[in-house]
Here is the input.
Amino acid sequence: MFLAPNTPLDWLEGKWANQSILKTVPRPLVDLSDKEKSAKSLRKRGNKSRIRQLKKKGDLQFTELEDTKEFEEIFDTIEDFSRLRLSAIHNVQPETDMRRKQLHLDLMKETDIVRPSLLKVDDDIASAQVCFKNCDEMLLSITSMSPFFAKQSPSKIHLLMLGNALTKTQYKNFDLSPGNGYKQRFATKTEESHALTVFFNKAEFTRYKAKRRAITLVRKSLERIKIEKNIAFKLADKICHKLKRLKLHTIPATVLKYLKHSVYEHRECRIYSISVDEIKSLNQPNTMNRNSISDLLKYQPVEAWQDTTSQFHEKVLGNFEKGIHSYSCSNEDTLLHYGWLLERQNVSHVFEVDQKFDLLPNSAVLFDYYTHPEARGKGLYQKSILQGLHDAQTIPGTQRVYIGVLADNKPSRHVIEKLGFNYQGSLFKETLFGRSKKWQRWNKESQIEEKELVLKASYST
Here is the structure.
């Protein structure tokens, strides 16, 4: 992607000037002759606090891998961490290329170029860094962080530990790879690097320049009206997603449905719970994968109301960072089912009716279940709930598990009631000509406080 240092550039001033794009990019470096910099950073209050928090979760270990087989075993995991973050934060969906994995394994087996290292908590990977030897420098290539430890910023701790370890070697510089952002905070010096694109077809060069001008114009327009670029991209992605799944013959019915709901709509969300003692007598199928990023990366929206891939992965990343557990299953290329377990919750927000209610102490919540149309009718929903219930009853102190379902979703209600959940009450939302009324009704046995809310609400799609 980048030209080697000291590459001649004067030839670009000739006939190639109108057929090439040269970009200057900062190249942040850590001078390894400063043997105390990384060690001092690790002793800073914030980093010491992060290290203590990681140690509370288990035995914290920084290790440099020497065994190709061990690198092969963890390669897919660290790739999944990277792909999830790229999709969630940058809306980038990189294709899986198995040759990439084999290339790294062959290089490590046949040469001493590839240098992977891990930051682990017990047996779990918190962060992974893969470097390449480059003469008297070490070049950072792959960085990957587990979402399950994200609150403690393990990548930052890992990078400082790696830099500290490299000061004890013969290398002169730690090249963090060209770019801005967090890398500049770690660098002790910066050099210039260049990215060059050459067009051998003038028409392609003209199209490229026109595209860049259009992008610049859009970006400046967004800045003038104070809309962030990422928000605009996500909105455009959502609109494209809906348009792709729009069928002409369904347009009249869809428009009619929205018009009807804008005039009058009545929604009821039924809340159920089950005690830990009742869970013990239920079957325990254990057919779902727990916290499987590999499964969740196979998500592809098939219905217009669903989140885009990036929006879904943003929720996945946020859930994992909050300690929420997923239950899922997939085939070779499709996510067939998923659901979530929140271990401890005091207040539950039910988005379907835009209301909150206070849970009883020591409660867990099952929520946001979905089964792909191709996999419905195979009992995945029931098996997923059962597995979540049995995991919930092993959480110390947990007394009850809650689940909610819209009243008109009869198949889901049937499964929930068949498993022995007890109906606790309902949350209602009624809209008439844009004015909404919200209220709650609970059984006396539920011990949940009733609330009534009358609020104005406007519709948005």
Q: What stands out?
A: The chain has two domains: 34-171, 258-456. The chain is about 35% helix and 30% strand. The two ends are 41 Å apart (CA to CA). The CA atoms of residues 243 and 262 lie 21 Å apart.
